């Protein structure tokens, strides 16, 4: 095999592997989705951001169709999570986020999810795995567009942004966050 042909074959194989990793699963049954959650931690990229950067402004409908603006949560610490029902690490985070939202909501902390799904998918999904914090419906396009405004230029999910009560971005995590790491970041903002 010539070096050129070998290089092309390798490029096709590598591209196919990466395409398979990033394609959404076409699974209409949320029960099956939650049953196949992989509990192994995903690769996590963590960055401390410039503490002076303010969060971008956006608005999206919630699960009831009401338009919600990020300003509604001004003067609160916001844990902003970009996720989708087909994303296994995202589904693994939900129980911990539910628990921490309940634990810290009276201390000025709000978890806020932005789903890369449509309203029908989220309604069906939350009947199987209830979510205790507000969920905004971004669909794929708006979710990734807003995530890019928060520095997520590669459309990675889960992608979690920790926003101080004054609106400044404190830190960002791309990939699966453990309950302990999430709680540590919240405590750093209290």
TrEMBL record:
Gene Ontology MF, one: oxidoreductase activity
DNA damage listed as a keyword: no
A Gene Ontology cellular-component term: cell envelope
Keywords: Cytochrome c-type biogenesis, Disulfide bond, Redox-active center
Location in or out of the cell: Cell envelope
Chief localization: other
Thioredoxin domain mapped to chain residues: 49-190
Annotated InterPro entries: AhpC/TSA, Thioredoxin-like_sf, Thioredoxin_domain, Thioredoxin_ResA/DsbE_sf
Pfam families: AhpC-TSA
UniProt protein name: Thioredoxin domain-containing protein
Species this protein is from: hydrothermal vent metagenome
């Amino acid at each position: 095999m010539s070096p050129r042909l070998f290089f092309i074959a390798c490029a096709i194989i590598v591209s196919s592997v990466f395409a398979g990793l990033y394609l959404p699963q076409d699974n209409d049954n949320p029960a099956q989705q939650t049953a196949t959650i992989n509990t192994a931690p995903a690769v996590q990229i963590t960055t401390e951001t410039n503490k002076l950067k303010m969060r971008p402004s956006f608005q999206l409908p919630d699960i009831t169709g009401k338009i919600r603006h990020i300003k509604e949560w001004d003067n609160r610490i916001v844990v902003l999570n970009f996720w989708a029902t087909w994303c296994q690490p995202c589904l693994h985070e939900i129980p911990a986020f539910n628990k921490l939202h309940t634990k810290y909501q009276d201390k000025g902390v709000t978890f806020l999810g932005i789903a890369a799904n449509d309203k029908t998918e989220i309604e069906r999904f939350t009947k199987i795995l209830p979510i205790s914090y507000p969920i905004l419906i971004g669909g794929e396009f708006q979710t990734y567009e807003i995530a890019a405004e928060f520095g997520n230029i590669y459309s990675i999910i889960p992608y979690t942004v920790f926003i101080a009560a004054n609106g400044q971005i404190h830190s960002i995590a791309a990939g699966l966050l453990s309950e302990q790491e999430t709680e540590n970041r919240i405590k750093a903002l209290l």
